[in-house]
Specification:
This protein is 37% helix and 22% strand. By secondary structure, it is α+β, with helices and mostly antiparallel strands. It has a single domain, classed as Glutaredoxin (3-Layer(aba) Sandwich), CATH 3.40.30.10. The protein is globular and about 45 Å long. The protein starts with 5 loop residues before the first strand and ends with a helix.
């Protein structure tokens, strides 16, 4: 459809590079380990100390992954942005366990193209 896909991760740049070399992504993956982007979009939330320890029990060390001690993570979000820079579709879910259905995102992308 001509879209450029950009994904933003809470992981530090070195971690992203390590993963990208293994996975060979066909999209741009950038780091927002400081969470400045997530905060600017209103997507950031602070993880309490109890949850940090719970995540470690699942082999998820957010401090090691981000290289930061802020304990901030982004909620799941997806945006379709037009060539004019205007957000045509947004999905934001405060439940970090729920991601957008790929069929819904694809439909939103198709509809956004029709509106240009």
């Amino acid at each position: 459809m001509g879209y450029q896909i950009i994904a933003i991760s809470a992981d530090r740049p070195g971690k992203i590079k390590e993963i990208a070399e293994k996975e060979k992504y066909n999209y741009i993956l950038i780091s927002d380990s400081s969470m400045s982007g997530a905060m600017a979009f209103g997507l950031a939330y602070r993880v309490d100390d109890k949850m940090v320890e719970t995540l470690k029990g699942y082999n998820m060390d957010i401090e090691a992954a981000s290289g930061e001690k802020h304990h901030i993570l982004p909620v799941p979000a997806a945006f379709v942005v037009g060539t004019d820079g205007v957000i045509k579709f947004s999905y934001i879910n405060p439940n970090y366990q729920e991601r957008i259905n790929p069929d819904l995102l694809l439909l939103a992308a198709k509809i956004a193209l029709q509106k240009n």
